Amino acid sequence: NYPEAKNIPVPFSKHNFTFQDDYSWMEKMKSSETNAWMELQNTKTYSHLETVKKKYSTASKIKEYDFLSTNGLPAKRGDYFYTRYILDKNKPPVLFYRKALNDDPIEIIDPYKIYKDNNVRLSSFYPSKNSRMIAFKISKDGGDQEEIRFVDVEKKKTLEDVLTKIKFSGVSWNHEKGVFYKRNSNVNTFERDSTYLLYYHKIGDTQANDKLIYDTTASENDFHFFTAEDKLIIVETNKAETERYYFYANLSDETFALKPFAKHNESDFNFHTIKNGKVYFSNTKSDFGEVSYFNLANESEEFKVIPQIYNSVLLETKFLENYIICKYKTTAKNYMHIYDYSGKFIRKFEAPYGMDFRINFLDAKKNELYVTFNSYVISYLNYKLNIETGKYGPYFNDFIEPKPSLFTFDHFETKIVTYKSRDSKDIPITIIHKKGMALDGKNPTLLEAYGGFGSIYGSNFDTGLLTFLERGGVYAYAEIRGGGEKGQKWHKDGKGLKKMNTFNDFIDGAEFLIKENYTNPKKLAITGSSQGGLLVGVAMTKRPELFKVAIPKFGVFDMAKFSLFTVGKYHNDEYGNPDLENEFNSLLEYSPYHNIKDDVDYPTTLIITSENDDRVPPLHSYKFAAKLQNRASQKNP
Known about the structure:
alpha+beta, globular
């Protein structure tokens, strides 16, 4: 007995396709009717979950694992070290800083004290060049629309300056004088995004006096910006994502007159930074990633500093004071190479036990690199790596104390294998379960993937997942096409008109787990978030008989209309342009909302969204839920 979702057929026509959209009224996401329906849905869901919890609650075990887990290192930005602490579980986390790693933490930003609201969150922060001030962004309702505020570190005082209508913007300092930021022009939260304006704000001034630096309103082109070597850098990308344009301004000239540079306007040129007058960049024509440079004063000559390593994907490049550090991924392991700025190889460090790692910061005086290792089942291990000698060892202090590991390192078995897709591609998949578990086809199994935008996700330690594994569960993560796990071509083979490869790879991964006797369709669940939410929606509507449970989170489900709201228009390159008939037809082939059939009982489905999500608007989840529920054939909840 689901809450009633009224059925109001509204014709939708595009190209040669006509569709009766019964739930288009839910696209008015803040209407009283939509909100009333959503509240009734949640009441029913939470009532059911309360009943489930009485028999199956895992909260106490997760909390126990949380308490026994180790912690990573503070973030070093500028001169100081920063950590967020939850002081009250009912209030937002508070930011603290330390001048040295082993100092007592000092409170610097408490969002609740400023706003007196439990829902505000400190989303990110940006210390000035000498770390005397911090610009910080506040999200009031969970959406991408934010405010920028400022705090004087020494005085521990929040300044009067408030910048509003901030969206998809970093903050870049002009020393301590002021900041550059992007301003949004949307009137309605969920309308197509209009973040086209770059402004400069002088500290102590009002936002009304801020100087407009750059404007792409006419072209609707996206851009990003940052400061490096006393220069403001702007990188603009055209709507078709086929060309990029580069500009710089000298910060010493407060007119910020922009000059073009980098005559490479093709989209496969990726600008990294400027160091000692040299422009460092990567070229995506190299499938696995490389680093080159040219002199800003003479662009005619290019020099390759770090060549690509075949079958090792360059995940991250850090430009430190004297070193370039490259993090690489292969199918079986992660490692780093350290180079000097001439490209001379200095040292290699490998992650043990198939773990992932995060490069934290360098102690330049001692030549020691601080790195944190972790895996899906091993919590954070902090190490110091000496670049000069190659020696390494664990790092502890008064606040990061050694703890016994939750489990022995061989308690869980982690396999990284490949399976064949239907078109004979080798798809990597990571499979984790307790050592010695019987492969009898009866194990509860959770399959996850992302498969979009060339993104690569490392292992994430999660005590909820740990609880599931300890109780006999199997977890699998498939590195399907559309992601970047096997290079640029891996992404290109899962985007646009080839997007169906992404979804087929995921379905083939489910069939592999069943064939290899890890599980069976009555024990198999799938999940994913954002692009992964779309992935789950496609898999469950294409092959519902394969899955017992589906948990799509923040998914895009109406592919006929995805480009009409918020940032959807920026994703035409990934999914296809609905204005082109062949690409529109490709979108409809997999659009979950349009592929729900009247006579099918789909898997038990928990749909998770956020009512203020202005990146993937909740209308997709509302319409998908309503259409799944309001069919006589749907017996699974």
